[in-house]
């Protein structure tokens, strides 16, 4: 009976050690999983911020492009109007000269 009791105590002690070992392993696994999940979440948030930043930059570039195009159209319009005024002035001048020569 003494031997049996001693054996049972040894088994109990061994099982306690195994349980502690398994608890430690479980804790490490849980901690590792939580850390991986947190890292994944941080990466996803960073990716989202980068995508939003890129989208804002693209929108700003598009706005700048539209502004440049509007300025260019306005400049072309002014140049066209200036050329038209110059042609009209030359036409009037030529008409006046032609009238003087015909007299």
UniProtKB/TrEMBL annotation:
Highest taxon listed in the record's lineage: Eukaryota
**Where in the sequence does UniProt note compositional bias of the Basic and acidic residues kind?**
22-57, 64-103
Q: What is the protein's name according to its record?
A: Uncharacterized protein
Give positions of region: Disordered: 22-103
* Source organism (scientific name): Champsocephalus gunnari
């Amino acid at each position: 009976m003494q031997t049996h009791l001693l054996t049972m105590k040894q088994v109990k002690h061994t099982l306690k050690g195994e349980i502690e070992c398994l608890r430690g392993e479980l804790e490490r696994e849980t901690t590792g999983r939580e850390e991986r999940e947190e890292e994944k979440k941080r990466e996803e948030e960073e990716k989202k911020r980068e995508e939003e930043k890129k989208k804002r930059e693209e929108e700003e570039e598009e706005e700048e492009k539209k502004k440049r195009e509007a300025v260019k159209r306005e400049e072309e319009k002014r140049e066209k109007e200036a050329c038209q005024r110059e042609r009209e002035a030359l036409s009037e001048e030529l008409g006046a000269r032609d009238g003087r020569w015909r007299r």
